[in-house]
Amino acid sequence: MRCIIVLILNLVSFAAFSQQYTIAGKVLDNEGEALPLAHILVPENNKAFVTDVNGKFTFTQAAGKLTLEVRYTGYTTLRQTFDLKKDTTLSFTLQLSSEQLNEVVIEASQILQSDQLISTRSSTLTLSEKEINAIPVLGGEADLIKTIQLLPGVSKGVEGTTDLFVRGGAADQNLVLLDGAPVYNTGHLFGFLSVFNPDILEGVESINGAFPANYGGRLSSILNVNTKSRMAEKTMVSGNIGLLASRLMIRQPILKNKLEVWVAGRRTYVDQVVKAVGESLPYFFYDVNAKIIYQANKKDRFEFTHYVGEDVLNFVRTGRDTASNFRFTSDFTIANSGQTFLWKRQVKEELSSTFRIYRTSFLYTIENQFEESRLFTNSNILDWGANWTLTQKLTDAFSQTLGFDLVQHQVSPNVITTSGEISQLLESSNTQAQKSLESSVFYQADGKWRKDWSWSTGLRLSSVAVNNTFYLNPEPRIAIRYQLKENAALKASYSRMAQYIHRVSSAAVAFPTDIWYPVTDWVVPQTADQFTIAFNQNLPKQNLFISLETYYKDLNKLIGYREGTNLFLNTSFEDQLIQGSGQAYGFEVLIKKEKGKFTGWISYTLSKSLRQYDEINQGNWFLARYDRRHNGALVLNYELGKHFSLSGVFEFISGSRFTPIIGQYIVPSTTLGGVQLIPVYASINSVKLADTHRLDLGLKYQSLATKKFRSEWFVGVYNTYNRATPLGINIVPNPDGSFRYEQPGLFGLLPFISYGFKF
Fold first, then answer.
1. The pairing of beta strand 88-94 with beta strand 20-29
2. In whole numbers, what is the pLDDT of the chain averaged over residues?
3. What is the C-alpha separation between 243 and 139, in angstroms, rounded?
4. Measured in whole angstroms, how far is the alpha carbon of residue 372 from the centre of its chain?
5. How far apart are CA 120 and CA 452, in angstroms?
6. What single string gives the DSSP state of each residue in 700-719?
7. Which end of the chain has fewer surrounding CB within 10 Å, N or C?
8. Distances (CA, A) of 199 to 128, 284, 510, 628
9. How far apart are CA 372 and CA 424, in angstroms?
């Protein structure tokens, strides 16, 4: 009998010890504010968890003695050991570390790519402010877009531009959001620099697939750019002086942990330097960002963001002698502006809402005048929008999100005004502004099933009303995650996206003057269906995150144009638009190390992008002009000591495609009084430019972080071994009367230097 009792007690003890219990809780700072993306470590089994945006976490664990270690950058680490005998709810309050108290600087929450392991979502890339500022780029100016172009699934256009071609999509199929407001033009200096001042960035997220239901409006990607929203403890000033531009940012707390205002500005000063030596360079750009943050109470938070930026070119040419009185002037302006008002409310512990209203505009104007002739053309986009999201966590295993989006587009695609002699050749246009009302409602549910499965499913119902036409598109989304083992997961997703506004360009390079145009009664919305399969794994001992992902995308009703179409100064281009189909598929690799003295990533993309239009290429499928079969990058940063760090970028990319001329034939030309040569083209986009690769190196010196005044020098070389990237194609005649193609390059070896400071 005694043996039976002992056996029963052992079985009961074993059952109790192997019982799984739920541990839930939240992580707060010493002011009671939630700490998102705080790390919860379980040393007994090397498990790691991350808090959500509200500082909450939940996981299951076997009964027994347990130690939890809570970490957050800039705060002291907290450890707690206890016996787990039942479902437990915990609360952790972290204190600022003493080292940070001397400086009182917490500029950003941690943004880690490795956190994607525990998320159901795939195809999401993240960048921190530190990663963006560590990379050597053109002119030494830290650049968000140039850094995004080094990630898998993202290809660029011509060297130096800010175009993004994501998973076989066109440049206009990416929705770029600055604090929730769309940005239509992402480039300064005709695309060589992005419009995003690196000083203002807090976090960047690029979603290339597996789209949550609360995002829509574009086919290829969502680029979320968030500005600084964590309040500073005292006045902070930072700045940078580079070869291309200088910038300055001031952060001023008004009420401690309640109200803050910051302002940041940037301007190129090359025109002023040239002017000082008696010469003239008639171009400059500037941008200004500002934000007001008000924490009314523990439940309500308000933010107002303002942005404005312009590129200005004023060119004047006059006769060289007194007998000539001709005068030619050309004024060219590109301008972005946007304002956003955000209200976040924590209704209950498990219920939160976000409400945003915004205004955004983009315009360009070109005014040329020669003697009495004047040509003025402009294009303008103005959006007014609002969105609301309500998120509820019903249980530890189930949450739901619902909301709506509403935006009115007002587009003036090409307005032309002429006077003088030129008006006899080109009449003024009476193009009316096109208005459209785009709206959507969405619902998404996220949950867990059994121990190893989690899922996310949603539906976005989008629509647009334009003139007397109404379009409605259901956009279903589903994502599934299966945990293969402790630090590895397999994911799959399907998502549909619809797009109701597009950019039309007949050039191989996307210019700011390309035409944006909404759908019409016969130009229908574009749609895309994307399937993805992904494998994610964390290697904690090596601090490595590994992602392998494959995708297939089916695109419909893509916008194109008939061959020979000239869009410049064309106010009736709508008749030249056509619609067709597309396919894109590929395989992507990302290996990223985010902690330690040695950080960086390796990315590689193998992809193919195809197009088909009934009116082009005899209706046959052809490669898209931005099809880049191979795209790879190696990005490294190594801390040599307390002061120095070395960084490098090596990039390889397949050449872009073009349509070659393979011959010419002669036809009589009565207007020329002779003959005319007519070119004969090969199949569309059948030849590509040369593959290119480039190495950039940089060395950064930083003063100690404990000093009140911190400075840094960043020196390096862009395109170290002077291998120019082809910009385009020139047709050059040979002595024997034949022709050859030449590929003129852009940007050879360019050294750079910049100086930054903070206090």
1. parallel
2. 83
3. 6
4. 45
5. 12
6. EEE--TTSSSEEEEEEEEES
7. N
8. 12, 20, 27, 32
9. 13
- The number of C-alpha atoms within 13 Å of 407 and in the hemisphere containing its C-beta is 24
Site of tokens 């801390």: 639
Are 604 and 631 within 8 A, CB to CB? Answer: yes
Surface-to-core class of residue 279, CB atoms within 10 Å of its CB (0-12 exposed, 13-18 middle, 19+ buried): exposed
pLDDT in tens, 725-745: 777 777 787 887 777 778 877
Q: What is the pLDDT of residue 567?
A: 61
Kindly indicate the confidence band of residue 564, based on its pLDDT and cuts at 50, 70 and 90: low
Query: Looking at the predicted structure, is the pLDDT value of residue 625 above 70?
Result: yes
Q: How far apart are CA 166 and CA 605, in angstroms?
A: 11
Where do the DSSP E strands lie in 654-759? 657-658, 661-669, 674-681, 687-688, 692-702, 710-718, 725-726, 730-733, 739-742, 745-746, 750-758
What is the Rg, in whole angstroms, of the alpha carbon atoms belonging to the chain? 29
What is d(CA 128, CA 721) in angstroms, rounded to the nearest whole number? 29
d(CA 554, CA 552): 7
C-alpha angle with apex 403: 120 to 129, nearest 5 degrees? 55
Alpha carbon 33 to chain centroid, angstroms: 28
601, amino acid identity: W
CA atoms within 13 Å, Cβ hemisphere of 129: 16
Residue 651 has pLDDT above 50, yes or no: yes
Return the higher-pLDDT residue of 415 and 202. Answer: 202
pLDDT for position 671: 59
Q: How far apart are CA 213 and CA 476, in angstroms?
A: 8
Two structure tokens written together for 203: 């976090």
Tokens for 205, please give them.
């997220």
- Cα angle vertex 463, ends 458, 467, to 5°? 175
Take residue 280 and report the two structure tokens written for it: 């003239």
Half-sphere exposure of 547 (CA within 13 A, CB side): 34
Closest CA to 126 of 230, 225, 229, 231: 225
Planar angle of CA 413, 172, 128, nearest 5 degrees: 130
Cβ proximity of 389 and 406 under 8 Å = no
Within 8 A by CB and 6+ apart from 458, the residues are: 212, 213, 401, 442, 443, 444, 445, 476, 477, 478
